[in-house]
Design a protein that fits this description.
globular, four-stranded antiparallel β-sheet, 4 strands, mainly beta, 1 helix
């Protein structure tokens, strides 16, 4: 399973197994998604880290 490395709005970096709506372009709705951050345990805006595919 492919994992995506993301950074939450608080600056925490973590990987996630799925990044919802990853296939949509930045022009349509933006790169960020709401994900639950494992460090602060809250729903946060998260964006993929450039070059962060594992």
């Amino acid at each position: 399973m492919e994992r995506t490395v993301v950074r939450c709005a608080e600056g925490h970096v973590f990987s996630t197994a799925s990044f919802p709506m990853q296939h949509l372009t930045v022009d349509r709705i933006g790169p960020g998604r709401l994900l639950r951050c494992p460090r602060c345990a809250r729903l946060r805006q998260a964006v993929p880290v450039v070059g962060g595919k594992r």
